[in-house]
Every structure is written in C-alpha cells, then in structure tokens.
Structure to design on (362 residues):
C-alpha cells in the first residue's frame, strides 16, 4: 500500500476560480504524493484536465431551488458513504471550498487528516454556524485565499495559513505574448458568474451611462450557457455598447483585447474574498476597478494599478471609465503598475506554500 495518498473533493466543477486553483494544487500534489484522487461532479470545468483518478458523484444546479437542494443533499449523502470507504486506506482529505461538509464529517469518523481550502464566505448566519462547527471539529489545517477571509473566518484552535491564488505558468506565458494595446476604442471587460450579487445589473447601468462616448465598449463573459443567458436577461434591455458571451475555457481571447477590468460584486449582498479575474487581468497588464472591501483590495492599490470604488456607485465608476478614455497616458501608467504587481502572486510562492501545508501533514 502507498504511504502518502490524498483525495481532493470539490462540489461543482466549472470554469470559475476555485476549481481553477484546485487544478493547480492537484498538479503540485502529483509530484508529492504516491496516489492522488479527485471527487467532483459531472459538469465541465477546469478539473476535467486534472491528471489523476476521478470519481464522479452527480450534482446539478437547477432553476428550481428545491431541485438544487435535493441534488445537493443527494451529493452529500453519497460523498459521506464514499469517504467512509477510505477507512482502511492511508489518505489525506483535501476539501476545496467549505461546501462538501459531508467529507469532513466522514473523514473525522474514520480518523483522517483534513485540509479545508476556504474560497468563500457563507451566505447566511445559519450556514456560517454549521460550517464553523463542522470545520472546528474536523479540520487539521485551514487555507485562506486572502487576509480578509482569514480575518473574517479564522478558527483560532486550528492552524491556518493565507495562500494567495496564483496563475499557472502557462497562463502567464500566454499573457506575456499579448502586450497591452491601447486602440481607439477602450474595451471594458467583466468576467463573472451569472448571479445578481456579482453586479450584473450594475454593469448594465454603467454601460448605459457610457453610451455618451462611442469609443468605450463593454464585454461580459459569464460562466453560463446561451439559454441561461437568454433567460436571465429576458426582461432586460441590453445597451448597444455591451456584448455578452457564454462560458468558455479560452478566456485569453477576451483579456488580450481588454483595457479595463470590472469586478462589481455588491458588498451589500456578498464580499469578494479574492478576485481571480483581477489577477488574470494583472497578467495582461490590465488595471481593474474593484469594490472597496474584501480580497480585491489586496490586489489593487487605489489609483496605482486600478481603483477601489463601491459597485453601487455606478456614477463614479462610469465617470472614471470616461476619464480614462480621455487620458490614455494615465491608463498606460496603470497598466505598467498592474503588471509589476503580479510578482507578488507568482506561482512559485503558491507552490512553496502548498508544499509547506503538505509537509505539515506528511
């Protein structure tokens, strides 16, 4: 039997930040452990490319909250049973996001070491209480993606570490091959899931406010299908300067043409814990406009490599975009600062810290 083994658990595979980060962690683990397994759902995403044994437990999100809840509970039950099957196998359990809680409970019952990689904040007080209780009594070490998240969710009795997300070397290399370009038209990009707290309605408002300048165009890339996009915007008039694109595994085609990135997460509904799209934009030397609280403030220095503006203040965001269009020199300087800031999030630091966590438990 192999001595050093690890199983990763992720609830919902897609093309968002948390599965992308986990795919990088798995690549590191493949060099460290004798055997690596991944438990996730059947959907397409960054984890499809993971070069390890995959175990699929079905989970799907529906338009109906009841159907989604039933799918979620079914996933947890099947996950609980699956983890119990590791009783006589020497495995560490690595839980990506705090949602696959059944894995932690089952892992604790069979005496396994458990790692929680926190990417998000919980949506309700009840959910927060349940998560904290289970993590407190099961986790061996907690990883947080930002100082903000650590300060908000740290459990003092459990060893914790902040590991900033990073970009793969392949992603950065692709970005280097595409120098920042300032053309006649300023391209403002937003990459987001199709959820209200992400500030989709704010983007519509900002786009409308910028219609006064034909040299400003907007692009929204959402992690959804054409049908889902159509349903979401069914009763919404899309401004003529805004194009909406469906889910894609090749986000580079959008970053290479962008000049400004928007992160419009509504702080009244949710606080962004890191901001992976902001980091991706930095690789392309793109300055970003981000909220005034949360993880993105650790990536963006106000008026240096972007702006910190409350997403509810759409007048101010539109004003800044209009001013940058007329001040290309300032936009170019911010672009340079954005690229320089990327060094802080170099993959080598991410790899070193992930290996440090593995060493603690080996």
């Amino acid at each position: 039997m192999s001595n050093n083994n690890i199983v990763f658990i992720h609830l919902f595979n897609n093309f968002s930040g948390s599965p992308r980060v986990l795919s990088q962690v798995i690549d590191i683990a493949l060099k460290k452990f004798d055997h690596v397994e991944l438990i996730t759902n059947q959907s397409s995403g960054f984890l499809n490319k993971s070069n390890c044994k995959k175990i699929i437990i079905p989970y799907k999100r529906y338009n109906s909250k009841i159907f989604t809840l039933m799918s979620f509970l079914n996933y947890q039950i099947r996950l609980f049973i699956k983890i119990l099957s590791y009783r006589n196998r020497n495995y560490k359990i690595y839980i990506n996001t705090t949602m696959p809680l059944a894995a932690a409970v089952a892992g604790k019952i069979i005496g396994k070491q458990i790692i929680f990689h926190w990417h998000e904040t919980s949506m309700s007080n009840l959910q927060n209480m349940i998560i904290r209780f289970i993590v407190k009594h099961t986790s061996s070490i907690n990883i947080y993606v930002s100082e903000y998240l650590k300060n908000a969710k740290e459990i003092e009795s459990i060893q914790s570490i902040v590991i900033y997300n990073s970009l793969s070397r392949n992603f950065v290399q692709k970005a280097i091959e595409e120098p920042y370009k300032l053309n006649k038209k300023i391209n403002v990009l937003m990459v987001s899931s199709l959820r209200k707290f992400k500030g989709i309605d704010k983007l519509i408002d900002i786009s409308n406010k910028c219609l006064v300048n034909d040299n400003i165009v907007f692009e929204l890339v959402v992690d959804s299908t054409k049908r889902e996009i159509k349903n979401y915007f069914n009763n919404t008039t899309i401004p003529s300067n805004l194009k909406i694109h469906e889910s894609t595994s090749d986000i580079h085609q959008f970053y290479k043409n962008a000049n400004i990135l928007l992160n419009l997460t509504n702080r009244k509904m949710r606080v962004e814990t890191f901001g992976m799209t902001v980091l991706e934009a930095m690789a392309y030397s793109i300055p970003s406009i981000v909220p005034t609280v949360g993880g993105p403030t650790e990536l963006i220095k106000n008026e240096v490599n972007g702006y910190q503006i409350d997403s509810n203040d759409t007048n101010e965001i539109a004003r800044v975009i209009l001013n940058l269009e007329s001040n290309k020199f300032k936009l170019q300087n911010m672009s340079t600062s954005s690229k320089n800031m990327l060094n802080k999030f170099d993959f080598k630091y991410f790899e070193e810290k992930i290996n440090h966590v593995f060493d603690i438990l080996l």
Remarks:
- The mean pLDDT is 94.
- Residues 289 and 307 are 5 Å apart (CA to CA).
